[in-house]
Design brief:
single chain; alpha+beta; four-stranded antiparallel beta sheet; two-stranded parallel sheet; 11 helices; 67% helix; 14% strand
Length: 473
């Protein structure tokens, strides 16, 4: 009897349950597809122990950063939240489904005492689905879409900034290691010079003051070497934190700056790529987000709405007299909601709308200001690149001349026309010229990465633009 009473209701419940599973499966499949597009890069093979040296080149560097860097993970989580909000933007069209079940047990003590058993239970089940729609829901959807664009631009900008910063640190450490090697050779040279000065002083060929000056130079060079080592070790620890490797892990950085310096046309880059600047794009996306929010809240003052609901239920009672109740019902409601207080500027809602309009105005002003600032930043970055590439040409020539001077000094020393001090001076001049040349290359690379971020172009793409720009030389 109980099975008969609930058979029809159970069929409806099962049908609606499978319908819900169908929609849920589609949503899960869509989310899985989106996550598949954003799978992290394959993690490079890590050494089996910290005693093994981890070799890092530029390719490995990017994989390590995108796998381990905290700032990147944080930016990706924030972006994922925006993506989930966009995926759920159609939730307003999905019904709210509720189910209830109840068992009630009663006993009438008065009837029991008189010999008339009148106790029993009442069981009820109900399932309801309801859809609530407003006329301006499309503006809410547009606002969510604009917020997603803001999150996407923020994530892309953060990703590029993190990678560019890690590349700067990577090549800076390689340069620091080369400069350490140069400084070590300078210390060795100062040691030889001091040893010769001691011998010449003991032989009575030079004054004590000349010998002491060589010792002072040696100690200064040793102190500079120790300072460079300390700075290198500190920067290496910071680098390991960025790439996410153990601090005690030995690493070997392999890389070389191979960019061919070229002059760039700043006017061409500003004209064609100022709107590609991350700050400009983010400000424009923020304007659209504020615009849709303002539209939605103002239109919501007068808001037509519709409600559609369906309820099914059954109840069975074993109380005397036994009863069976069943109810199915479809309901539909159409109405208009008017927020009269929003029409008055001094009301709470009126002030809230006023603040929205102010936010929209400020975001427009900020977008204009950011565009002008991007113009200035790109111009300054191009000037920095051009100045640095001019320095590279001069320092490259200076290094070439120092190489020639050293070769001539060695030849003269071998022929007996130059003394060893002159060879030492030529060697020191060569080391200084090489150090300045390497630093200029690093400065040029950093300036190109800054310009790459401002224009949203790769370094190679910037060089292609420079090659075809009429203003390039």
């Amino acid at each position: 009897m109980f099975k008969y009473l609930y058979s029809l209701t159970a069929q409806k419940i099962v049908a609606l349950f499978f319908l819900y599973l169908f929609f849920a499966y589609n949503l899960m499949a869509q989310e899985a597809a989106e996550k598949a597009k954003e799978l992290p890069p394959q993690r490079p093979n890590a050494p089996t122990s910290t005693s093994d040296v981890l070799v890092i080149d530029e390719g490995t560097l990017e994989m390590l950063v995108l796998t381990n860097n905290f700032d990147y993970k944080k930016a990706k989580i924030n972006y994922s939240q925006s993506a989930r909000n966009l995926q759920g933007v159609w939730n307003d069209f999905f019904p709210t489904i509720t189910g209830t079940g109840q068992i009630q047990y009663n006993m009438n003590n008065a009837l029991v005492n008189s010999g008339n058993q009148s106790s029993g239970s009442k069981t009820s089940l109900a399932l309801a689905a309801q859809i609530n729609l407003t006329a301006w829901v499309v503006f809410s959807i547009m606002k969510t879409t604009a917020d997603y664009n803001v999150g996407k631009i923020t994530f892309e900008s953060a990703r590029k900034k993190i990678l560019d910063t890690s590349k700067k640190t990577f090549h800076s450490l390689i340069l620091s290691k080369k400069l350490l090697e140069l400084q070590e050779s300078t210390v060795r040279l100062a040691q030889v010079n001091y040893g010769q000065a001691v011998s010449r002083y003991n032989s009575g060929l030079i004054e004590r003051g000349d010998m002491i000056s060589t010792q002072v130079e040696l100690e200064n060079q040793r102190n500079q070497l120790q300072t460079q080592k300390t700075t290198y070790e500190k920067d290496m620890l910071a680098f390991k934190l960025v790439v996410g490797v153990p601090l005690e892990q030995p690493v070997n950085l392999i890389g070389e700056i191979t960019i061919d310096p070229r002059p760039l046309d700043g006017a061409y880059l500003v004209k064609n790529y100022v709107d590609s600047s991350p700050d400009v794009r983010l400000a424009q996306a923020t304007v659209w987000s504020n615009r849709w929010q303002t539209y939605y809240q103002h239109l919501n003052i007068v808001s037509p709405f519709a409600q559609l609901g369906y309820n099914i239920g059954n109840s069975y009672s074993t109380l005397i007299p036994n009863t069976t109740d069943r109810g199915d019902g479809l309901s539909a409601t159409i109405g208009v909601k008017i927020q009269f207080d929003s029409l008055f500027p001094w009301s709470k809602n009126g002030l809230s709308l006023w603040q929205l309009r102010d936010s929209l105005t400020l975001s427009k002003e900020e977008a204009t200001k950011n565009r002008v600032q991007a113009h200035i930043d790109i111009t300054n970055a191009v000037n920095s690149v051009n100045n640095t590439q001019n320095n590279i040409r001069s320092l490259r020539l200076a290094y070439t001349l120092s190489e020639e001077n050293l070769s001539l000094s060695i030849t003269g020393y071998q022929r007996g026309v130059k003394d060893f001090v002159e060879v030492q001076q030529a060697t020191q001049s060569r080391s200084t010229a090489l150090s300045n040349y390497l630093k200029a290359q690093q400065d040029y690379y950093s300036a190109m990465l800054d310009l790459s971020y401002l224009t949203n172009l790769d370094v190679t793409e910037i060089l292609e633009v420079a090659a075809i720009t009429p203003g390039s030389k």
